[in-house]
Amino acid sequence: MGADELQISPADPRGTPGKEQQAAGVGILLQIMMLVLSFVLGHVLRRHKFYYLPEASASLLIGLIVGGLANISNTETNIRTWFNFHEEFFFLFLLPPIIFQSGFSLSPKPFFSNFGAIVTFAILGTLLASIVTGVLVYLGGVVFLMYRLPFVECLMFGALVSATDPVTVLSIFQELGTDMNLYALVFGESVLNDAMAISLYRTMSLVRSHVSSNFFLVIVRFLETFAGSMSSGVGVGFTSALLFKYAGLDIDNLQNLECCLFVLFPYFSYMLAEGLGLSGIVSILFTGIVMKQYTFSNLSENSQRFVSAFFHLISSLAETFVFIYMGFDIAMEQHSWSHVGFIFFSILFIGVARAANVFGCAYLVNLVRPAHRRIPLKHQKALWYSGLRGAMAFALALQSVHDLPEGHGQTIFTATTAIVVLTVLLIGGSTGTMLEALEVVGDGHDRPISDGFEGNNGYIAPTYDDEGESSGNRIKMKLKEFHKSTTSFTAIDRNYLTPFFTTHNGDEEEHDEPTASSRRGGSRGHG
Q1: 291: which DSSP letter?
Q2: Closest by Cα among 172, 269, 117, 237 to 524
């Protein structure tokens, strides 16, 4: 071997151990400093109710500024490598605590009462948005409006940019108050939509490599993945409930063991699903919902306080770090800005596709819902506006650089980067004003998120003066709908699931529910 082959670059981890350790220390120090700055800035912005720069936007902006300074300075390569956005690190370490906390802090009644609508938006809507985006991008290339990509690669682009991340919208919902069902729709769609976007992207990658081209088999495979992931997550959640019920860990000298085991189960669920080729996101989401409903009540009071605070803490850290991490990498990566037309028209086409998703699916949902449960137009507009793009789209776009030919992958990555920055910084900054203009937050919605659910377990639509029905008839209709849709599951939960998986019986659970709901209201959801 020649001398050139033996030379070790500064970025090579086999370099001088002392120098590498110093570089690691400097890199981690910068990350901690950006986290501290982001949390302090976010607190100041919230305290002064300055919604034009949401916390997520501030974190992304900090990453962009620091990354830009590092890019124009002579920062050593082995320090800069600590800020490279690695998809594996994002999917395996940063995403799980965020998704678990989302399920763990979610009030299950509004989520499951709107589950049909959520699945419609997340599965059918995401599929529709992906296809519309892909077709429009392809046609734009055909008529020379933008850079032309092969049709399958256009569908891959449509799949990855269909992943929404409405963290800004959800945080404003929690700050200003909103209808619980609207919150459940926005949140539920965003979580399941991530799983759908990943599945569509991977499916299009297989089609591109000619491994699978049967559309029917692709749909069946996705439904199998979703059902398997949900079953895996629910199974792990129920297993944890039985363990904590019968293991007798809720005594003073075993609280440390109790908390350690509780913290490990969510990661076990996520890694089990990933290891089986399923969706870890869907699995850990349902694990969070089940563990909150059944396992949590089997813990001692001290352990309950600890795990609630712990998951809230790590999800906040992970969420903030994701936006800093993403902003820094956007500033450091090589981008292809030669196809500005592709970026401009992609942004327009994504808005059109999002409209087709929201208004088309809402029309279908309202067709089968009674009048008092239909989704109002202003809530549909809020859903359309909440379709911000974030870390999931960025991670998949970064993966496309490796999956596609050099010029194509780089163009898609640059366009996605521009879309993420535009939606998070510009649209995210105007979200508070837009939601107030739509009258879905603020006055009349001042109740805490967890208290916005009324006792009918159905969609709480606003009252209109011109409706021909009396209030008594509307109440009767709501009660009938309530009994039809929830009596069977509520009875099963009260009579069988709660007594079997927890140390409480059904009556105690119902009595304790407002307390549990108030605890959930203090937790922060994801986007």
Answers
A1: I
A2: 172
Residue whose pair of structure tokens reads 């002392």 in the numeric block: 18
- Examine the pLDDT at 506 and tell me if it is beyond 60: no
pLDDT tens-place string over residues 230-253: 899 999 999 999 998 888 776 667
Inter-CA distances, 503 with 241, 289, 491, Å: 10, 18, 18
d(CA 131, CA 386) in angstroms, rounded, equals 20
User: What is the CA angle 286-291-293, rounded to 5?
Assistant: 95
Q: Tens digits of per-residue pLDDT, 58-87?
A: 888 998 888 888 777 766 566 666 666 777
Q: What is the phi/psi pair of residue 202, to 5°? A: -65, -35
How far apart are the C-alpha atoms of 506 and 216, rounded to whole Å? 43
CB 138 within 8 A of CB 151: yes
Task: Name the maximum alpha-carbon separation found in the chain.
Answer: 90
388 in Cβ contact with 168 (< 8 Å): yes
- Using CA atoms in the order 62, 522, 262, 526, what is the torsion angle rounded to 10 degrees? -40
How far is the C-alpha of 120 from the C-alpha of 362, rounded, in Å? 9
d(CA 446, CA 259): 34
Q: Which helix (H) or strand (E) holds 295?
A: none
Give the count of alpha carbons within 13 A of 399, CB side only: 21
Query: Token match 């059109």: residue?
Result: 352
Tell me which residue has tokens 């521009």. 418
